[in-house]
Amino acid sequence: MAESTTAVSPCGSSAPSSSGGGAGTGTGAEGAAQGGLMGMFFPLIIFIAIFYFFIIRPQKKRDKQHNNMIAGINRGDQIVTIGGFLGTVREVRDDTFQIEIAEGVRVRILKSAVQTKRAASSNENQGAAS
């Protein structure tokens, strides 16, 4: 016959315990703890995946396109700076461009300050050809 005893914890609450056949004891608590950890980490993993695919990956793609665009800028190309200045590239150096923003007004800017490269408008090309 199995004996049943009551154990008293230091907090004052009592919990029944059995002293027979200890093969099945403790496995239920370990399984619950294992499921609890997976339940805690699963939302975190999903959050990280969403963050990567919606924020990090598109930003890397934009950076790569911008760097390719800057590498493709040559003398005579029209650009727009981050500050909104429109200019024509007159000189290309390692990390800077010299651009002409008005006739006779040349400034040196960092390559990182270029926002976009503009397509040459047909009016300016026709004026240059005349």
Based on the structure given, which CATH architecture of the domain at 74-120 is correct? Roll
Query: Which strand-content bin applies to the residues?
Result: 25-35%
Order of helices and strands: EEHEEEEEH
The best one-word shape is rod-shaped
Strand order of the largest sheet: 6-5-4-3-7
- CATH topology name of the domain at 74-120: SH3 type barrels
The biggest beta sheet is recorded as:
5 strands, antiparallel
Q: What are the low-pLDDT stretches, counting only 5+ consecutive residues below 50? A: none
Average pLDDT score: 81
Structural class assignment: alpha+beta
Cα-to-Cα separation, first versus last residue:
113 Å
User: Quaternary arrangement of the chains shown?
Assistant: single chain
Q: What is the overall number of helices?
A: 2
Care to describe what's here?
It contains 2 helices and 7 strands. By secondary structure, it is of the alpha+beta class. Among the domains are: 32-71; 74-120, SH3 type barrels (Roll). Strands 6-5-4-3-7 form a 5-stranded antiparallel sheet, with helices on one face. The longest helix has 45 residues, at 27-71. The chain is rod-shaped, with a radius of gyration of 35 Å. The chain starts with a strand and ends with a helix.
